[in-house]
Amino acid sequence: MRFTNISKAHWFLANAIFLLTILSTTLVFAQANGPADALWELYKEGNFAEVVVQGKLLINTDKETAQVNLAVGRSLVHLEKYDDSFVYLTKAVQLDSDKTWVYAWGQVYLGMANWKMGDYARAGQAFILARDCNATRNATRNATTYMTRLGLSESYANWQSFETDNFSFLFSDRLEDFDKVKFATRHEEAFLNISQWFGGQPDEKIRFLLYANQEEADEAGVGTLGFSKPTMFLTHARIGQTVGHEMTHNIAFHALNPQTMTGLINEGIAVHMDQTGRNQLKRARKARKDKGGESFNVSIPAIWKDWTLAPDEYSYPLAGAFVARLLEKGGKEKFFEFFTDQSYEHAQEIYGQDLNQWVREFEEDLYK
Ligand SMILES: [Zn+2]
After folding, report:
1. Contacts from 306-310 at CB under 8 Å and sequence distance 24+?
2. Does residue 350 lie in a domain region?
3. If you measure from the C-alpha of residue 268 to the centroid of ligand 1, how many angstroms do you get, rounded to a whole number?
4. Residue 109 located in a structural domain
5. Based on the structure, what is the number of domains in the chain?
6. How far is the CA of 228 from the centre of ligand 1 (A)?
């Protein structure tokens, strides 16, 4: 995963851009002086439970409109009551026969609810309907983004799905000499190892898309492979990646619930747990020499604070080796305590004076 700093809240808050566009669209269109107006006010405040209570009251007193159903259905999705949301979202799209923004957002949320229930086929159908009615730019964009991220767009039409206990795999049709059972079995074994080590795991299957190459990802309109979005229980990978790296991002996130993440630690743990058993310190030393040796010294505190200071070929093995050192010196229990806030300052707090000594020793080893 290419790392960007994020902090975790609820899964939909982690998709805050989506939520903001949803809210702004709602505000623009909710000027109709209909029975749903008060609901949208509550919705805007994030008071989803109250939207459900008041919305159901309106529905039971024959004041239901497409918008009322939409507000209730969307709120239920935000409350993670996916099963309950279907009847309201379906009613909303049925009542909006002109296929306005209500229909479009109803389909987006039907897509989301089906996805969360593990029904990817229905999720894909709903996102396509949301996109193709082209009612509002934001709904269209949301539907398109979900479809691409989840492997539900037309680019993936010929891909092969393969379900296991902990993964919902989607394999490219361009993979050659590919043994899907062997691939899946290796991933399940690694998943058990890694989740046992962390003492926890995601409570949903990991949606795992496997590409033949980067070119294929470019054609589908996704970013540089591989990457993971733990809030979406999602990995996009290409053939040839280590078995453990991307799943560690998903498992670590859900097992330890980090609130503040840094590249050094978040990538470091994924490299350390990549299941290759490679000597990462050796790899980092070699990468440093290849890049010009001494002229390329980046201190650990510096790269801890700014992950972009070194090229990936160097920073990734360095991070893996450093996390291994932290675990060796401070133990797993302290590491888990530290992991929730991965900042340098928090490490100083958890490990105290020892940290400076460990960092100095590590840098000396690195520059040998
Ligand atoms: Zn990564």
Report:
1. 307/3, 307/262, 307/263, 307/264, 307/267, 308/263
2. yes
3. 8
4. yes
5. 3
6. 7
